[in-house]
Design brief:
The chain is an alpha+beta fold. The protein is 23% helix and 19% strand. Belongs to the peptidase S8 family.
Length: 515
């Protein structure tokens, strides 16, 4: 006996029970009886298409292949789940898995430390399959609670009435009138700019409890930008589609909708990367001369491990969005850089990430946009740009800063003469915060002219010459880079340069961006 899948394509049966009965009758024609067919069957496909899986002999499988209603019969095989394609999008396939440096230098083994409120050690995400032995210097242990393992039926193609309602999300006990919502597709409105997914899921639960068979969620704030798991079939409409639905509901005496069978549609390429509507934005309100955010990375609809409710089984997976999704991407790329450049400091790695980022679509080269409307962006939206792992391995120039630099920065940004927690004294002449040797340059307040200083370290092979090129097309600000050319004789050499900014006296005082 082997496990087979029998596929019969689309069906026109009125309900799932009819499909299952017909499957059993078909299988009984080769198995001997309905009872034997029921015993052999392991699963029925009765919604979007017709089919079943069952334990069959090769001879029985061949007989089913010869049946007119059967499209194909193939052996069932176990398949592994694919993760989100974000790493493919980032181009990490172009990064060599090993190089001569990492093979020879034992310090290239990288341990990633995570500060979090807790993790599920049993998750398959922590599996060490394919990794080498644990470094001897690793001192971590598993907690006592780790177990050591790494591991509504709906009729389709039917017409349903539509009712327009607003399901309150503040109280999960609120409900709809079942007499109105039963066997209906309910239209709900997201009345709040609260970007939490929970109130949107609650609406689905309320509709389901009221007997509704589906939901149309009108959401002008989020639209369909984020994937939302729900308990019933749900269509999310953004601001562009809302007016068409509202006009239909107003003009049609008996509004109806159809739930079609599931199908896969491959659309045109969506320009990317773009910024999500919820992404944190600048300017920096704490240290105004430091541009924030630093960088952007994949963080929307990422398939990730999620611990289940306490005491309820092993870890599960779900699509999620936010900093909790983008941060692990950046952390992993930082670890990749560290493995290729074991001697680099954290500020050097950060510099490599920022100076090699890009601020345009991968295809077409148009500027990065944001939100559902495709609004224009600035570095206050994306920082230095979208992370580029392969390029970050060879940035050419590095901006580094150390402990003394950070102490000077803290002294200037807090206007103190001493930093108590660090037992450090501040210099008599404060170092301007904009002179922190950061990979980006920001000047929050400028009256007349300001000169910003930076020092770069060359990482490469042999001598190299770097020419300055500034893209700052704004009549209110002029600049001078000194020197215009940096000439390095060998790797590891440091050279300083300055940028003098001069503001027009008639400038309106707005932010100006360049690169």
């Amino acid at each position: 006996m082997q496990h087979y899948v029998v596929y019969m394509g689309e069906h026109s049966y009125p309900d799932s029970d009819s499909v299952i009965l017909s499957n059993h009758e078909l299988l009984a024609s080769v198995a001997g009886s309905i009872g034997q067919a029921e015993e052999a069957t392991t699963h029925h496909y009765h919604k979007s298409f017709r089919g079943f899986s069952a334990f069959l002999t090769p001879k029985q499988a061949q007989k089913l292949r010869e049946t007119e209603s059967v499209i194909s019969v193939f052996e069932s095989k176990s398949a592994k789940l694919h993760t989100t394609h974000s790493w493919e999008f980032l181009g990490t396939d172009a990064i060599p898995q090993n190089n001569e440096q990492t093979k020879m230098d034992p310090k290239s083994d990288v341990i990633i430390g995570v500060f979090d409120t807790g993790v599920r050690p049993e998750s398959q995400s922590f599996s060490d399959d394919g990794l080498g032995p644990v470094p001897e210097r690793f001192k971590g242990t598993c907690g006592d609670q780790a177990d050591g393992s790494a591991i509504n039926s709906l009729q389709m193609d039917k017409y349903y009435g539509i009712i327009d309602a607003t399901a309150g999300a503040a109280d999960v006990n609120q409900s709809l009138d079942a007499n109105l919502s039963k066997e209906k597709i309910v239209v709900c409105t997201a009345e709040t700019k609260d970007f939490s997914m929970e109130n949107r899921r609650t609406k689905g639960a309320v509709v389901n409890n009221g007997g509704g068979v589906g939901m149309i969620l009108i959401d002008p704030f989020i639209g369909n930008e984020l994937g939302i798991e729900n308990v019933i079939p749900t269509t999310v409409l953004g601001s562009k589609e809302i007016e068409f639905l509202q006009e239909y509901l107003k003009t049609e005496k008996i509004p109806t909708a159809i739930i079609h069978p599931t199908e896969t549609v491959i659309s045109d390429t969506i320009p990317s990367p773009d910024m999500a509507f919820f992404s944190s934005k600048g300017p920096n309100i704490v240290a105004t001369d430091i541009i924030k955010p630093d960088i952007t990375a994949p963080g929307v609809n990422i398939l990730a491990s999620k611990p289940p409710p306490s005491g309820q089984g092993v870890a599960i997976y779900k699509f999620d969005s936010g900093t909790s999704m983008s941060c692990p991407h950046v952390s992993a790329v930082a670890a990749i850089i560290k493995s290729h450049h074991p001697s680099w400091s954290s500020s050097a790695i950060k510099s490599a990430l920022m100076t090699t980022a890009y601020a345009m679509h991968k295809i077409g080269g148009e500027p990065i946009l944001k939100n559902m409307k495709g609004s224009s962006t600035t570095p206050f939206d994306y920082g230095s740009g979208h992370i580029n792992p392969a390029a970050a391995l060879d940035p050419g120039l590095i901006y580094e800063y150390g402990t003394d630099d950070m102490i000077n920065f803290l002294c200037s940004s807090t206007n103190q003469t001493k930093i108590p927690l660090l037992e450090a004294n501040c210099p008599d002449t404060p170092v301007p915060t904009y002179d922190l040797n950061y990979p980006s340059i920001g000047v929050a307040t400028m009256d007349g002219s300001i000169t910003v200083n930076r020092t770069v370290t060359y990482y490469g092979e042999g001598p190299a010459i770097f020419d300055s090129e500034v893209d700052l097309d704004n009549p209110n600000v002029k600049f001078i880079v000194t020197p215009k050319q940096l000439e390095f004789k060998e790797a590891g050499e440091n050279i300083s340069f300055s940028v003098k900014f001069m503001a027009d006296s008639t400038s309106p005082g707005s932010w100006v961006f360049g690169s």
